[in-house]
Please model this.
Amino acid sequence: MGQAKPHRPIALVVEDDEDQRTLVTTLLEESEMSVIQCESAEAADLVMSKIGRAVSLLFTDVTLAGKMSGLELADRAKTRYPDMTVIITSGRACSDIPKDTLFMPKPWNALDILMEAEKTLQNGYH
Model:
């Protein structure tokens, strides 16, 4: 799990594929966000329990290592922090997307991720 730099909006990237996680992290850092990386929803849930209100954007895969899915994590995030931007991604069709979240099918377009990060920054959430 990486450490975020202070005084920048924080993104939480939850992906068990290291290459995908690294790519999303690089994109979000390009948009001037600090990034915390997690391999599992359980690890990300722990981060959110400690600094949840400081997280501006959650990017999570649906299928993750561990018992909790990315959908469950996204639902918890939106319940606790309704203004948080939540992006869910998967290589499979997904019909159970929590309300007020964005679904990006894999393979996703890097520009789409950058645009969502920019929207989050413009909306002034943290």
